[in-house]
Amino acid sequence: MKGTIFDIQHFSVHDGPGIRCTVFLKGCQLRCLWCHNPENIPARPHELSFVKQNCIGCGNCFRICKNNAHVMKDSSETNKKVHEVERGKCGRCGECALDCPTKALSLCGREIEAAEVIEEVLRDKAFYRDSGGLTISGGEPMMQRAFTEELARLGKEAGLHVTLETNLCYPYEWLANVKKNTDLFLADWKETDTAKHKEFTGLGNEDALRNIRRLHDEGFSVLLRCPIIPGYNDRKDHFDKIAEMTRSMPELMGAEILQYHNLGASKSERFGLAGEIETIRLEQPRAETVNAWVKYIKGQGGRLVNEEGNDRD
Fold first, then answer.
1. For a Cys staple, 302 with which of 114, 185, 202, 297, CB 3.0–4.6 Å?
2. Where are the domains positioned within the chain?
3. Beta strands 47-50 and 133-137: pairing type?
């Protein structure tokens, strides 16, 4: 069973309980304007990263590239010619990255067997203790449903705590097999208003809300993860709905307010996705702003895992 992943992140402490190993799968059906992993949206296996400031102008990539994707262009900022990658010509073969002395160019993403993933995850098993384990994230893992099911199955057979981070914007039937081997669902709850959800992500939120309630009613452990984006969903009606959801589903683990950061915009530039995927760049909210959001939701009876003064970077 092969799948396409972008990365395996060891010693993760933000993607479920304890110390975890998070596997990021490629492909997502949403196009969130604030996505902080835009390189995971395309389902293709490889992405070419180019960090301009690391380029020393050695010219190796110009000589190697068969598609002439590396060019020199005039910069309006410096009035000098600068190295650019013409993404439409790039075949993402990665040959230029292999001969880049400063790693300004690198090829990210790969196809891999599910068993290989679990083998790498198990290298950290000594650190998991009672609460850590495997987190399957994305992109949206359920866009590679069979591979996600296999990862969860192999993870459980290896004695791991398995967490699935998912947007749940798909039919509930998709979860039939994976939920048998999943201990915790990190359910992304991005926007209350259906029209705004579609505007911000490309799809409505009806399936997500329905699936959250069904998972809860069937006794699965679910934690809402709520990214708050200044100027988009930092509204009282959205905060009120988060609070109401935690009140109306008493067995829900609660909700986690996630602070916006603008990492996604820089990644979009680094991977040349600006013309393919729209990603906004905003100022990151101050700690007191995040704390005010948390205080308000708690004031409405919302059960949050956040502690005021402990906003996450």
1. 297
2. 2-44+109-299, 48-107
3. unpaired
224: tokens are 């809402």
Per CATH, the number for 2-44+109-299 is 3.20.20.70
DSSP per position, 228-259 = E-TTTT--HHHHHHHHHHHHH-TTS-EEEEEE
CB-based contact 226:257 (threshold 8 Å): yes
CATH 3.30.70.20 fits 48-107, yes or no: yes
3-state DSSP assignment of residue 81: strand
Residue at token pair 């992109």: 139
Read off the pTM.
Answer: 0.91
Q: What are phi and psi of 185, to 5 degrees?
A: -105, 120
Q: How far apart are CA 165 and CA 269, in angstroms?
A: 25
Peptide bond into 139 cis (omega under 30): yes
Is-contact 232 2, C-beta < 8 A? no
User: 26 by DSSP, 3-state: which?
Assistant: coil
* CB neighbours of residue 191 within 10 Å: 24
**Selection from 46, 23, 162 nearest residue 95 by Cα:** 46
193: CB partners within 8 A, 6+ apart: 237, 238
Instruction: Give the CB-side neighbour count of residue 134, counting CA atoms within 13 A.
Output: 29
With 0-12 / 13-18 / 19 or more C-beta atoms within 10 angstroms meaning exposed / middle / buried, residue 189 is buried
The two structure tokens encoding residue 234: 């930092």
Mean pLDDT of the chain: 93
Under the banding of pLDDT at 50, 70 and 90, the label for residue 76 is: confident
| pLDDT given at position 308 | 63
